[in-house]
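#onboarding

Welcome to the new folks! Below is a worked example of what a typical request in this channel looks like: someone posts a single protein sequence, and someone else replies with the predicted structure as tokens. Don't worry about understanding the tokens yet, we'll cover that in week two.

Example request:
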Amino acid sequence: MKNSYLFLCFIFFCQLLNAQIYPFKKDGLWGYIDTTGKEVIAPAYKLAGFFNEGLTYVQIGDAIGYINETGKVVIEAKYPAAYSFFDGYASVMQEEDWGVINTQGEMVIEPKFAGPLVFHNGLAKIKLERGLFSTYGFINPKGDTVIYPQYEKLSDFSDGVCMASKEGGKYGYLNTKGEWVIQPNMELGALFKINGEYDFSDKDFSNGLIAISKDEKYGLMDKTGAMVLGFKFDFIGKYSEGLAPAKKDSLYGYIDIKGNWVIKPKYNGAEAFHNGLAAVSKGPYLEEKWGFVDHSGKVIIPLTIYGNYDPYKPMEFFKGVIACYYEKDVFGYVNREGKVIWRME
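Example response:
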């Protein structure tokens, strides 16, 4: 088992804080604490993920299994790698192939895929081939192909649509039937990879809208392909909770759907709103400090946080804590009051 892979799995799932019980490490083992920092499951695991749908993966000995929120093992530890549960299913590895189990631990899709399968809205993206050149599609929980693997680049579904690129550098959007709802006539532009796969998170719809660019200016488009806000900003992020981070003259603030400034641009960085809070930063690139504001622009958590757990992921607050470097090189959890509830020793 490769420890580097398992650590990446842990980091990936730091963004999935769907329960108010979080992994913490003590004396080389992982257990669980609540939002006050109180221990609720004693450290006993070499690896521990975040709870999702009442279950989480943990490493017991040299294998991965699943426990519930009381710490009871509900799915035997027998897999070399595993992902969290979504829509009642989790992807697990056997030898070098990935399959899918249900919450009873029954294998519902036999291991035969090159990468993990994560279900959202009843569909999971699959990778047909191994290596640099592959095509992607979607299957349902029965293992039936719903969208045949024919796309060179394919995102997960968001708001009922997914980004797809079949040939060349242009992309559009498919519905869950595999039909084009927005024709592939937009330029992909530069993309970067995380763990060998392209990251399409900036091309996900949110609240029925997506920011797109033209001639180095950004506007907002709806799921019919109609522009609801013209190309007049230097950047627009994800539209969420009625607001979107936007950039004008090198500074970020927040706009409404009509393009009006609700929080005037004064920050060097800004992320989308989640659960009433959004991360903002001030300071030079790679040296900025982060904090959180509410919808009115009031600073709720002072801009003193050094950075996110992963510089390639958005700084997001989920149900109780954010996983971050609250001091230089010091990783821990900060709650919504700005209090550090745990730090990694």
